TrEMBL record:
Residue span(s) of domain Dystroglycan-type cadherin-like: 472-571, 572-670, 671-769
Domain of life of the organism encoding this protein: Eukaryota
GO cellular component, as recorded: dystroglycan complex
Gene3D superfamilies (UniProt xref): Immunoglobulins (2.60.40.10)
A Pfam family matched in the record: He_PIG
A GO molecular function held by the record: laminin binding
Protein name, as recorded: Dystroglycan-related
InterPro entries to which the protein is assigned, alphabetical: Cadg (IPR006644), Cadherin-like_sf (IPR015919), Ig-like_fold (IPR013783)
Organism: Anaeramoeba flamelloides
Length: 791
């Protein structure tokens, strides 16, 4: 009885195994989250999964389950996606569902399509024995699935081929309601590849899927046995069939292909595109079990007129007489309907030469940076088994492997990324029959039959996987300054970048000036210390855009950019500029001190003047001699004012410092030239007085205006009027004795003024009114007598 089992790594193995984790070398894919069991029913065995991408973050997996439907194997399925709050874990949608309706005998070898137009998918499988005890029919069922719940069947179970048929495969045609089923069927004396096209929506009111072409033969019958078909969709209703071609004479198995196009009517066999081709070029051993994938670069707008596909297969005896996984990368020219082999010879997807590498599957998926092909297959490893007496026997057990290839580029041969990875974590007993499907950007799902994933027999294991993730910027590097002519050093923080891949932790850094391949000569970068250093040049201020590249071990790269500014220090204001005064009508000159500004770099300063207020301008008369630091000019005759001036000191690099000061303009006011003498006004007599125009003078000979008030500020008395334009007082004084103290103010256009006072002395007249009347009468009589004598 075996007491213990110990896993040993055979010296010839190229991979490292572990019970609880995936240990990948190089840039292999890595797992996300835990491996889970897709099957909720765990009695007996669940085996042979098939998976397909439906839409972003939605995939379907189907498998065959033993005695769950009551009779042999039945076909079951499960929708999956990544969790909304954590895209590194798988979430089951709805419940496990039964695919087949008929339960007679075994339902095996299920395959599932992608989304058919209208959120539908199709499942095909083989029924081992029919009701009439005939062998091997092909069945199908269409389902509706919007991704929110368990899929629901549309119409009834379809019979694709009634007898002698097996190994069915199904694809959906892009943006259409069509799906195509291919299968092998024995027609004595040979087995050939046949196919049929269905409309998933049908034509009936209940949307029952209907056959739109009759069964047609795909293979040309050039070999004795045409088996194990696979197919992929192209564009423009084209699809490609692949299969094993066994030639009895040479006893060789090769991979053949044929392109078809369906026009929407008629017999599809009349729409072959070109002839049957042999895909595999090796004649060493057998080429079997093709698996293919379409890479739609055409609709992505990358390469007009072209689309691409890859086909993989298992090759026996090609790797030191041990099976290996090989593939070809092909371009299809729509314009010339021509297949172009980018890889004329097959490439090896598997690296290990330990045991057999079998049952390949291939899928295309995208990351943010690359287009990728991922291959999975069943590998083998050596197990040393010890009994209770420490006797050892050697066994070979199976596991699930994967590899990555970069296909980012037209006409470029795929580039391997890292080494093969071991996906399945159980390494004591065999894991096998792997399948792969994309599920969302940079995420793909690998499923396989696993003896340890549930508690009873084989179950369907599922593991979410990712390619190498490029590093990310988590804390952008801050902009830096280097002082003119001084030593500069800066170490950017270690947490500026992050690499989330579980297998890699070391990042390599490089730096260059943006648009250049290197840094400026004066600046060096030490990658291991993340350190920039160097003597900043004595140059005017300049901004250098520096790119820091963080690259992981798989050449995943991210770039962060920061600005390094070589700073020239601005001039320094050491003392304030004084506020000078100017006089209207006179020359002005002001020289500010040479000690007002200094240059830290001891360079030569130049100066400029400006107005602090951008909406106004400095007076045109104000001139500036910057070499002699002198403001000067002839001040015009104007009113007093104060205006501000901005004085700016600039160094040789145009770095500047400014300060404001004010210039005040003064003007002399009018003055008294000659005094006004006091005046006498007789009561009842008309008083008139005009003072001379030279009583007042203006320093700048400006016109003066006059006004007059009582000395206490009151208006002149009603009887006395003042005409300012004639400088004249007029009026009939009252017949009384009084003194009127009068002020006269002379004002220029700037409202500057001067005032002087004089007195009008009003006195009572000595002649009475009756005396005036008697005098008037006498003069009148005298005038009459004179006139009479004259005549």
């Amino acid at each position: 009885m075996i007491k213990k089992m110990i896993i040993e790594v055979n010296q010839i193995m190229e991979d490292i195994y572990a019970f609880i984790s995936i240990l990948c070398s190089g840039c292999s894919p890595h797992d996300l989250g835990e491996t889970i069991a897709l099957n909720s029913h765990q009695n007996n065995d669940q085996i042979s999964p098939s998976s397909s991408y439906l839409t972003d973050n939605l995939a379907i997996i189907v498998w065959q389950s033993s005695f769950q439907d009551g009779s042999g194997y039945g076909v079951y399925g499960q929708l999956v996606k990544t969790k909304t709050d954590n895209n590194e874990e798988i979430q089951l949608i709805g419940s496990e569902f039964l695919v087949n309706t008929r339960t007679i005998s075994d339902q095996t070898d299920a395959d599932v399509s992608g989304y058919i137009f209208g959120s539908r998918f199709a499942v095909v499988w083989g029924n081992e024995w029919n009701e009439n005890s005939t062998c091997c029919s092909i069945r199908a069922q269409v389902f509706y699935a919007d991704g929110s719940s368990t899929p629901t069947a549309i119409g009834g179970e379809l019979t694709i081929s009634a007898s002698n048929s097996k190994n069915a495969k199904v694809i959906n045609l892009p943006d259409s309601e069509l799906f195509v089923v291919a299968y092998q069927r024995f027609e004595s004396p040979n087995t050939e590849i046949y196919a049929v096209v269905y409309n998933a929506s049908g034509t009936d009111s209940d949307n029952e899927p209907v056959e739109v072409t009759s069964e047609f033969q795909v293979s040309s019958g050039s070999g004795d046995e045409q088996t194990n078909p696979d197919l992929l969709e192209l564009l423009d209703n084209k699809f490609v069939f692949f299969w094993e071609n066994h030639n009895a004479d040479s006893n060789e198995h090769t991979i053949s292909m044929q392109i078809y196009r369906w026009s929407g009517e008629g017999t599809i066999s009349t729409y072959k595109v070109g002839g049957e081709k042999t895909v595999s070029s090796s004649t060493d051993g057998d080429q079997t079990l093709p698996s293919s994938v379409h890479v739609d670069f055409y609709n992505q707008g990358k390469f007009p007129n072209f689309t691409y596909f890859a086909v993989a297969w298992q090759s026996s005896g090609s790797a030191s007489d041990i099976d290996g996984i090989y593939f070809k990368w092909c371009q299809y020219d729509y314009e010339n309907t021509q297949v172009i082999w980018i890889t004329n010879t097959e490439l090896m997807a598997s690296q290990s030469t330990v045991g057999q590498q079998r049952f390949p599957a291939v899928e295309y998926f995208q990351t943010d940076e690359k287009d990728m092909l991922s291959f999975v297959w069943q590998g083998q490893h050596n197990v040393s088994v010890y009994d209770e007496n420490s006797n050892v026997t050697y066994e070979i057990q199976t596991d699930v492997r994967a590899s990555f290839f970069d296909i980012s580029g037209q006409d470029i041969e795929p580039t391997r990324l890292g080494s093969d990875a071991t996906i399945s974590k159980n390494n004591i007993f065999g894991d096998s029959a792997p399948q792969i499907s994309a599920i969302t950007t940079d995420r793909f799902l690998v499923s396989w039959q696993d003896v340890f994933v549930d508690s009873k027999g084989f179950g369907i294991a599922a593991q979410l996987m990712s390619s190498n993730n490029a590093p990310t910027v988590i804390n952008p590097i801050e902009d830096q300054e280097a002082d003119y002519g001084t030593y500069f050093e800066y170490v950017f923080p270690s947490d500026s970048f992050s690499d989330d891949d579980p297998n890699f932790s070391t990042l390599e850094y490089t730096a260059n000036e943006k648009g250049e391949t290197e840094l400026p000569d004066w600046l060096s970068f030490e990658s291991s210390q993340r350190n920039f250093s160097g003597n900043a040049p004595e140059i005017c201020q300049t901004v250098i855009e520096i790119e820091v590249h963080a690259r992981d071990e798989c050449d995943g790269e991210i770039i962060d950019t920061f600005n390094l500014t070589v700073v020239n220090s601005a001039p320094v204001l050491k003392q304030d500029v004084l506020n000078p005064e100017a006089t209207a009508g006179n020359d002005f000159e002001y020289i500010f001190s040479e000690d007002c500004f200094t240059d830290p770099e001891e360079g030569t300063l130049t100066y400029s003047k400006s107005c602090p207020d951008s909406d106004t301008e400095l007076p045109s008369w104000l001139l500036f001699d910057q070499e002699n630091r002198k403001f000067y000019g002839e001040v015009p005759i104007q009113c007093p004012e104060t205006f501000n001036v901005t004085l700016t000191a600039l160094d040789e690099c145009s770095s500047s410092t400014s300060t404001n000061f004010s210039i005040s303009i003064e003007r002399y006011p009018p003055y008294v030239n000659e005094g006004i003498e006091d005046q006498i006004a007789l009561g009842t007599d008309l008083f008139e007085f005009q003072f001379d125009d030279d009583c007042f003078s203006d320093s700048h000979d400006s016109d003066l205006t006059y006004s007059s008030l009582m000395s206490d500020g009151d208006d002149l008395p009603d009887w006395l009027n003042f005409d300012p334009t004639k400088r004249k007082y007029i009026g009939t004084a009252p017949n009384s004795n009084l003194d009127l103290d009068i002020t006269v103010t002379a004002q220029n256009e700037c409202e500057q003024s001067v005032t002087q006072s004089f007195t009008i002395k009003v006195r009572v007249s000595d002649v009475s009114p009756s005396s005036y009347r008697q005098l008037f009468c006498s003069l009148f009589i005298f005038s009459l007598i004179t006139i009479f004598i004259h005549f």
